[in-house]
Amino acid sequence: MSAINKLSVGIRKFHTTASRLRKYVELTAVRYPLLKRGNFSFLSDRHLGFFQSILSAHQVLTDELNDLSGYNVDWMRSVRGSSRLVLRPKTTEEVAAILQYCNVQNIAICPQGGNTGLVGGSVPVFDEVVLSLELMDEVISVDELSGVTIVQAGCVLEKLETVLHLSNLALPLDLGAKGSCQIGGNVATNAGGIRLLRYGNLHGSVLGLTAVLANGQIMDCLNTNKKDNTGYDLKQLFIGSEGTLGVVTQVALQCQPKPSSVQVGFFGLNSFENVLETLRLSKRNLGEILSSCELIDQSSLECVTKQLELRSPINNFPFYMLLETAGSNAGHDAEKLNSLLEILINNGTIVDGTLAVDSAQAKNLWGLRERISEALACEGYVYKYDVSVPIRQFYQLVDDIRIRLGNLPIRCCGYGHLGDGNLHLNITSHEYNPILLNRIEPFVYDWVGQERGSVSAEHGLGLKKRDYMEYSKSPTAIHWMRRVKKLFDPNNILNPYKIFPEQSSTD
Ligand code: FAD
Ligand code: 2HG
Ligand code: ZN
Fold first, then answer.
1. pTM of the full predicted structure?
2. Which UniProt keywords apply (predicted)?
């Protein structure tokens, strides 16, 4: 165990460009004046004294200027809370002691992982105490034979990936934020990412977890068996619960054999019909080795190349696709990909493209896709929509919103996990513009609702999407979700203001 933790793995915290950091971030309470602070206790010296008595000095941060600002602002720099305290427990027991006390004292808590969430869920809205998992970053065990890996929730995804590679294993999930996001945050958001097509979502890959409930009780669901039908599978409740039902402290993951052969191709296409045909034939011809199928439109590529000074091997296509295969036999995999490409090129579906010859090239191609969010953030304020839509309608929403918005925004672009029907529609303007926002919303949600899509495919609801849950969930489902929340957290101390719309007195 300890051998794993002693490994020095150089994890790159994925960088934030200086221009973004300079951007002033309005307080959430000011930007959203209708939000009302819940009837929670205000932090007192007595409370602080208690936390200082159970944690060491470096686990209790109170310096607003030097320590707290990064925990109060989200990655997008779009919401800002005013917490005066960050607690950094190291063990499940410390988390339990904190929550037990907060529950009795009526202190609101905002659990925080790597703070890469995109829906305003990971930072306080008002003065909630931030409970950061960042010091709980140990890889507890890795079993090469079964692939079962147990890890503390605060472990950064990229560190875990590096450790797993040493045992010839691979994670079942991967995402552009892997240099900063934590496995606990991934579980709490049920993060999707670029491998979901191959391995499915975390409801399948998480074998077990430990969560601390609002009252401080430790719920041990750290199952490591592949099969376990002994009653309700309670761990599933915490996957995607966005810190509102409990704090995840440990996770048991089903990992996969590391593929020995990976191929990455980047292609230009002249129409969305051709995109769909490429998806159809890729699924059919590549079968089990297809590991990613991503779409990038012209505007997204233009943004990522311009803002981050990246170079694309091909240009001037309305659509680009990034295909990846991952398998165990290089010759066999290459044969499959080549015969697919032969068909697609001969029938004119793919016009131009390139195949990475080594891992450095593959990384560069992936950069053109994975760094789009970062590039968009350089343009100013980003209106982000992460929707599931029927695959034939995948791009229609981007076309429709462009017509609707005219030249109000800087850019409307669409990209995403085509193979999973998950579109990332992004719109940018120099700064936050409520008039533009009112042109976009609720239009986008109505559009998605009519298609019976999902208004949040993978990022969750957090603060920003909480009022739109009803577009994708029935009133009965929402009613029972509220009942579950009440059962687990009767005092509503865990991530208040998130996921659920404000309840009217008649609800
Ligand atoms: P945070 O952002 O800190 O928190 C997210 C939510 O989880 C919050 O509600 C928080 O309260 C809660 N939480 C965090 N840790 C815990 C815990 N231990 N217990 C209980 N609750 C907790 N998302 C995708 O799904 N797919 C992608 O491809 C993807 N790509 C991204 C690329 C970039 C560049 C960025 C910036 C973000 C991306 N995201 C993506 C969004 C984000 O990275 C994921 O949602 C990620 O899972 C969040 O993990 P985190 O550790 O940063 O959690
Ligand atoms: C991705 O797939 C992430 O790159 C982020 O989910 C999407 O920023 C976005 O809209
Ligand atoms: Zn995504």
1. 0.96
2. FAD, Flavoprotein, Oxidoreductase, Peroxisome
